[in-house]
Write a structure and sequence with these properties.
Keywords: Mitochondrion, Transferase, Transit peptide. Belongs to the citrate synthase family. GO terms for molecular function: 2-methylcitrate synthase activity. Helices cover 52% and strands 6% of the residues. The protein is mainly α and 528 residues long. The chain folds into 3 domains: 2-76, no CATH class; 199-363 and 481-505, Citrate Synthase, domain 1 (Orthogonal Bundle); 367-475, Orthogonal Bundle (Cytochrome p450-Terp, domain 2), CATH 1.10.230.10. It has a 3-stranded mixed β-sheet with strand order 2-1-4, with no helix packed on it. A 3-stranded mixed β-sheet has the order 5-3-6, covered by helices on one side. It has a two-stranded antiparallel ribbon with strand order 7-8. The longest helix has 26 residues, at 88-113. The radius of gyration is 25 Å and the shape is globular. It starts with a strand and ends with a helix. Bound molecules: acetyl coenzyme *A and oxaloacetate ion. Oxaloacetate ion binds next to loops.
C-alpha cells in the first residue's frame, strides 16, 4: 500500500501507524528491505507527497494490534524533486519480467529436454592449461571469437557505436555504457528515451550509505585503489536487498532475480561515486559526489573527478566504459563474479570478487603496467628514436624474463578490436595523435608483434585493449596510473551484472566442476 505524506510531514494512511524520521539522501531500498525483515505483517511502499520536494519528511508503517509497534532506526529515503519520475530501471525490470525472462525460460526448458547432447571434449592439455577452450559456461551478453574479437549479441563494436544511443550533447558520437548495458541485458537496442531515463535513475541512486563513506575514509591513503574499490563494493552488501530478502525467506527462487536486479542497479549507480571518492582522496580533494539527472553516468563521473569541462575526455571515457563492459564469461573478472554469485552471494559480494580478479597484472592491472612501461621506455629512448631502438628495448625487456604488458591474449589470435576502436578514436583526434606517448604506443603496436613472434612463446603477439587505454587517460591529464584499472572496474560492472541477473532469473545452480590430481590424470591416461 502507499502512504501519503503531506506538506507538514503528517500522514494519510491506514490504521495504526509508526512514524519514522527520514533523512533525505539515498537508499530507498534500505527502507523497503528493512520493513520486509522487521515486519511479518505488511510491506509498505512510501511515496513522496506530490508537492513535497527535497525536504525532510516522515514515512509510516502500518501495523496491527497483535504486533508491537517498533521504532525502526533512522532510515534514508531519497525524495526527488521531480514529479512523475519515470524509473527507467523499473521499465527495464518490467521488460525483463514480462518479455525477456519468460522467453529465455522457455528456451532453457527446450534445451534441457536434450541436455545430454555433447558439445565438446576435454583434454589433459586443457585441464593443465588454464581450461582454455573448454565449453562449459553459459553466458548471454557477448561472445569472443579468436579471429574476429568480441561481439555483443552478434553486434561488432563498430556497429554498437553506430546504433547505440550516444551522449545528450550535440555532436556526441560515442555510445554510452548505459546503452551497452541495456543491449547486454536484453539483446535489444534501447531507445534514446530509455537510456536518458536510465542515466537519470543511476544518478538518483548514486549517493553512498554513510558506512561506505566512513570505510573509505579509514582506509590507508596509499592502499592500491583496486583493493579499496573491492572493499567498498563488498561493504555495500550491508544494504543488499537480495541478501536481506533471501535471509528472511521472503522470496522464492523464481523471484531471486528481482532483488539481484535492484542490487545491480544500485551497484552501477554507486561504483562511479566510490571511484571518484578514491580518486579525489588520492589527490587530497574532499568532495561530495553530485550527479546531475539530466546527464549520463560518464559525464557525471568526469565532472566529479574534475574533467567535466572537457567533452573530448568525456567522449573518450564513454567509449572506454562501453568497450570494456563484457568479454564473454571466461575471463577472470567475469568468471569470478559469476562463480561467487552461484553460491547466492549478493551482487555486491560477487562483483567485489570480480574486481579482485581484475586487479591481477595478467588481467586488468595490465592497463596501469602498460602506461608505466611506455613512460619508462620513452625515458630510455634517445630523442630521435627509431623503430630499431624500440625493438632493442623490447628484446632487453623480454631477456629479463618479463611479459610485455598489453600484448598477448588467452583467446584472441588477432589484434583486439577494442584496441582498434581506441586507436581509431585517437587517430581522429589532433591532440592525441600528436602526443609523444601515444606515438610511442602506436610504434610499439607495430614493432612488438614482430619481436614477440621471433621470441616464439606468445600464442598471440598482437596488442590487446590494455596496450592503448592508459595512454588516453594519461593524455587527458589523468596521471595516476594506479587508477586505470579502477576505470576498467567501473566498466566491467556493466557487463557482468546483467549476466548475474540472468543467472538468478534462470535459476543457475552453484558451480562445482570436478577437479583431478596428477595421479588421477595419469591413471585415466594409462587406462585409455
Ligand atoms: C583485458 C585483459 O585482461 S587483456 C590481457 C591483459 N594482460 C596483459 O597484457 C599481460 C601480458 N600478456 C600475458 O601475460 C598473456 O598474453 C595473457 C595472460 C594475456 C594470456 O596468457 P596465455 O593464454 O597463457 O598466453 P600464451 O598461451 O600465449 O602464453 C604462452 C607463453 O608466452 C608468454 N607470453 C604471453 N604473452 C606474453 C607477452 N605479452 N610478453 C611475453 N611473453 C608472453 C607466456 O608468459 C607463456 O610463457 P611460459 O610458457 O614461459 O609460461
Ligand atoms: O577475455 C579475457 O580473458 C581478458 C579480456 O580481454 C577481458 O576480460 O576483457
Amino acid at each position: 500500500m502507499n502512504v501519503d505524506i503531506d506538506r507538514h510531514g503528517a500522514f494519510r494512511g491506514c490504521g495504526q501507524i509508526l512514524l519514522i524520521n527520514v533523512d533525505i539522501k539515498s537508499e530507498t531500498e534500505t527502507v523497503s528491505s528493512h520493513w520486509h525483515r522487521k515486519s511479518a505483517i505488511q510491506v509498505v511502499t512510501a511515496r513522496p507527497h506530490p508537492h513535497k520536494c527535497d525536504s525532510y519528511c516522515s514515512i509510516y508503517r502500518p501495523t496491527t494490534a497483535q504486533h508491537k509497534v517498533q521504532m525502526l532506526s533512522r532510515v534514508s529515503l531519497r525524495i526527488s524533486s521531480q514529479k512523475n519520475i519515470r524509473f527507467s530501471s523499473t521499465e527495464l525490470k518490467n521488460l525483463m519480467r514480462e518479455k525477456y525472462i519468460p522467453n529465455k525460460r522457455e528456451q532453457l526448458t527446450r534445451i534441457k529436454k536434450s541436455s545430454a547432447s555433447v558439445i565438446g571434449q576435454t583434454t589433459v592439455e586443457q585441464v593443465l592449461g588454464g581450461m582454455r577452450g573448454i565449453r562449459c559456461m553459459w553466458w548471454e551478453g557477448s561472445e569472443l571469437d579468436a579471429e574476429k574479437g568480441i561481439t555483443f549479441h552478434g553486434k561488432t563494436i563498430e556497429e554498437c557505436n553506430r546504433i547505440l544511443p550516444h551522449g545528450p550533447e550535440q555532436g556526441a558520437t560515442q555510445m554510452l555504457p548505459e546503452s551497452m548495458m541495456w543491449l547486454i541485458m536484453t539483446g535489444e537496442v534501447p531507445t534514446e528515451k530509455q537510456v536518458r531515463a536510465l542515466s537519470a535513475d543511476l544518478a538518483r541512486h548514486s549517493a553512498l550509505p554513510r558506512h561506505v563513506d566512513e570505510l573509505i575514509d579509514n582506509l590507508p591513503k596509499d592502499m592500491h585503489p583496486m583493493t579499496s574499490l573491492s572493499a567498498a563494493i563488498a561493504s555495500l552488501s550491508h544494504n543488499s536487498v537480495f541478501s536481506k530478502q533471501y535471509s528472511d525467506g521472503s522470496i522464492t527462487k523464481d523471484k531471486f532475480w528481482e532483488p539481484a536486479f535492484d542490487d545491480s542497479i544500485s551497484l552501477l549507480a554507486k561504483i562511479p561515486t566510490i571511484a571518484a571518492k578514491l580518486y579525489n582522496r588520492s589527490k587530497g580533494v574532499s568532495k561530495v559526489y553530485k550527479a546531475d539527472e539530466s546527464k549520463d553516468v560518464t559525464w557525471n563521473f568526469a565532472e566529479n573527478i574534475g574533467f567535466g569541462d572537457k567533452l573530448p575526455f568525456v567522449e573518450m571515457m564513454r567509449l572506454y566504459l562501453a568497450l570494456h563492459a563484457d568479454h564473454e564469461g571466461g575471463n577472470v573478472s567475469a568468471h569470478s563474479t559469476h562463480l561467487v554469485g552461484s553460491a547466492l552471494s549478493d551482487p555486491f559480494l560477487s562483483y567485489s570478487a570480480g574486481l579482485l580478479g581484475l586487479a591481477g597484472p595478467l588481467h586488468g592491472l595490465a592497463a596501469q603496467d602498460v602506461l608505466r612501461f611506455i613512460l619508462q621506455m620513452h625515458q630510455w629512448l634517445p630523442k630521435n628514436y627509431t623503430e630499431k631502438d624500440v625493438e632493442q628495448y623490447l628484446w632487453n625487456w623480454l631477456k629479463d624474463g618479463r611479459v610485455v604488458p598489453g600484448y598477448g591474449h588467452a583467446v584472441l589470435r588477432k589484434p583486439d578490436p577494442r584496441f582498434t576502436a581506441l586507436h581509431e578514436f585517437s587517430s581522429k583526434s589532433d591532440s592525441i595523435s600528436k602526443d609523444p606517448h601515444w606515438k610511442l604506443v602506436d610504434i610499439v603496436s607495430r614493432v612488438a608483434p614482430q619481436v614477440l613472434k621471433e621470441h616464439g612463446k606468445t600464442k598471440n603477439p598482437f596488442p590487446n585493449v590494455d596496450s592503448q587505454s592508459g595512454v588516453l587517460l594519461h593524455h587527458y591529464g589523468m596521471k595516476e596510473t594506479e587508477f586505470y584499472t579502477v576505470i576498467f572496474g567501473i566498466s566491467r560492472a556493466y557487463g557482468v551484472l546483467p549476466q548475474l541477473v540472468w543467472d538468478r532469473a534462470l535459476g543457475m545452480p552453484i558451480e562445482r566442476p570436478k577437479s583431478l590430481s596428477l595421479n588421477a590424470i595419469e591413471k585415466m591416461m594409462s587406462a585409455q
